[in-house]
Amino acid sequence: MKYSGIGGQAVLEGIMMKNQDSYAVAVRRPDQEIVCKKETAGGLLQRHPALNVPFIRGVVAFIDSLVLGIGTLNYSASFYEEEGETGEPAGEKPLDAMTVVLTVAFSIVLVVALFMLLPVLITQLLSRFITSSFLLGLLEGVIRILLFLGYVGGISMMKDIRRVYMYHGAEHKSINCIEHGHPLTVDNVAASSRFHKRCGTSFMILIMLISVIFFMFLRFDSLWMRLLSRVVLVPVIAGISYEFLRLAGRSDHPIVNLLSRPGLWMQRITTREPERDMIEVAITAVEAVFDWKAYLKENFPDSYAEYMRTCPETVPAGNESEGDGRGPADGAETSGAAGDADRADRTGAAGSSAAACGCPFEA
Ligand SMILES: [Zn+2]
User: Cα of 282 to ligand 1 centre, how many Å?
Assistant: First the structure.
């Protein structure tokens, strides 16, 4: 596996892909056509390089990803709104800054209330029956994880979310396809794994797991202190989780892989096998921000040569490419996640400070 630096996120009937400071959103419109918009990201981390320090950058990247996520989701949803609401063409009304700030703030408050504070309150009720503070701490952690799993699993019952999870799968599969050295064709993407270590889902479950350990030992007698400590420590825990994920994305160390397991397991819920037309959307988004042929040529010369040999009509890497790369699936045996260890050791890729996560968190 070879780190590519790209990351993405599923939106409504579409996918956002980000590479360094540009991102593209590809959406399948109701009339089945794919539209793709490319923009410069310019988040807080880009504008304030001073914030790019370990443990701080995780929190900043989290906010950046929320802002970008809300903007791109709004863009994709604009194609599916009831007609005649505003009279403006789809995708042409970016959110104003205030709306974004309020939405981000609301999301954060909701997440903290639901997954950080509610478990404390439920545990408080149980403290009448249980006296061991260690046990109560453990219980709080278990409740926290059950709430999170319940939430993620619960919303997956909704039809729209199920499709978002399928697009999420397409997003991971296209990144895995590239990073395992296979040409970005629909067949190759379909054959790739839908699980990826650098994923926003992994980030969330890591936060939950690290919280369990933290708060098992951090018990206060006062309920208010307990609540306050949970809120105050959220950024600290998020910072630690982010650094781990950043490491995990570039490492194949057995310990890192072991610790990545819960996140990968969680992706069994948050990703689903996509349809082929969803994969096409993913490929459109990737190609808008990432020259995968050049990447393949540089990092997987054999695979690139094979690709060029079997598809002589395609334009070589580096040239402005028109070719859609309908190659025979030379990599159809790929199944992704753990394999390809022989190609794994070339590290230090991409040079960018981006800690690109599979999704939705990337710098
Ligand atoms: Zn993901």
Answer: 13
